[in-house]
Design a protein that fits this description.
Strand content: 15-25%
Strand order of the largest sheet: 1-2-3-6-7-8-9-12
Structural class: alpha/beta
Number of helices: 12
Number of strands: 12
Distance between the termini: 36 Å
Oligomer: single chain
Order of helices and strands: EHEHEEEHEHHHEHEHEEEHHEHH
Length: 339
């Protein structure tokens, strides 16, 4: 099924930062941010066990616990089981992501995409989130950035394990939809080529943004649209660099990215718009994209995101991005050329 009928709007809230990504966030600040999202009408929340070894799920669950369950849509992920054992968060092997959640909980995380681990992960997430059901479940990070040359083997274990387990849960009505949540396009292309199992949607982080969209644009998004597999875009600000931060791909941004962002900012300023408006509206202009889920760690960021979504962006701005080869000419933009 298309998850467009399930999602309550075109913008949701991504909770990776609430797992103490990059920095230790006070509990009250995290809670205030989730509450701000709720107060301003956000009703889709995405999380994962990876985010601080369950910390983001716990923080999200604490705030949503007193909200009507039918009033919001909730997604989390499988592929990592959180244990009661303790380890040093800074020493975890997270592939290209390094010590991304070194400020998270010290609970040991085990990578496991088997059917049994998938069911256990779902049960554990329900407890941390203080809820009785999940709407969408994503199979997390079966890709090169976490598993290097072994990623195809990991993907295969997920195909025969997590994919089938989640298909059964969907058929039984336990969940409403499932898919993959990754930072690379190749696992999604591979999944679209399968006869079965059939996912409902994909969560793609960082690969359809102002800074990186060529590969997804060429094959993945058209193929997904043809098969009615909706795309939810995560990381629309490319880890923060498009929202005033210094990170790109979860690390300090390299010089060529900083230069590109500088050009986008200058063009945005020239046309009287904010760079966040450009980032969010570009993502949502593609017909294959059902929603975008920027993350935040401060309450004020929610209002910024909603204002960015509503801002009127002139076509002349998009044309200038195309003319400067920042945006691919064939990439859809929100305002059609009058000619």
């Amino acid at each position: 099924m298309s998850i467009r009928s399930l999602l309550p709007g075109r913008i949701g809230f991504g909770t990776a930062p609430l797992g103490n990504m990059f920095r230790a966030i006070p509990d009250d600040e995290a809670a205030a941010t989730v509450q701000a999202a709720w107060d301003q009408g956000i009703r889709y929340f995405d999380t994962a066990p990876l985010y601080g070894a369950g910390l983001a799920e716990i923080r999200l669950g604490d705030v949503l616990a007193d909200k009507p369950r039918d009033a919001y849509v909730l997604s989390t992920k499988v592929g990592r089981v959180i244990l009661d054992e303790v380890e040093d968060p800074a020493s975890r092997e997270l592939g290209q992501k390094g010590a991304l959640f070194e400020h998270g909980r010290p609970n040991k995380m085990v990578n496991d995409y088997s059917a049994d681990a998938t069911l256990r992960s779902v049960e554990d997430s329900l407890k941390r989130l203080k809820t009785d059901r999940l709407d969408i479940v994503w199979v997390h990070d079966v890709a090169q950035d976490f598993y290097g040359d072994e990623w195809v083997n990991v993907y295969e274990s997920a195909r025969t394990g997590a994919f089938r387990a989640l298909t059964r849960l969907r058929e039984e009505g336990v969940i409403k939809a499932w898919g993959l949540g990754v930072n690379k396009v190749e696992p999604l292309e591979m999944t679209l080529d399968l006869d079965e199992p059939r996912p409902d949607a994909f969560l793609l982080a960082g690969r359809y943004t102002l800074l990186d969209h060529e590969r997804a644009l060429q094959r993945l998004l058209p193929a997904a649209a043809a098969q009615d597999v909706d795309i939810v875009v995560g990381g629309p600000y490319s880890s923060g660099i498009l929202a005033g931060g210094s990170h790109f791909e979860y690390a300090e941004a390299p010089a060529h990215i900083i230069e590109k962002v500088g050009l986008i900012k200058a063009l945005a300023q020239e046309h009287g718009i904010g760079i966040k408006s450009a980032a969010l509206q570009f993502v949502l202009a593609h017909p294959a994209v059902a929603a975008v889920i920027p993350g935040a760690t401060r309450p004020s960021r929610i209002a910024e995101d909603l204002a960015a979504l509503a801002q009127d962006v002139p076509y002349a701005f998009w044309k200038s991005l195309r003319d400067r080869k920042v945006v691919a000419h064939e990439a859809p933009v929100p305002v059609k050329d009058a000619s």
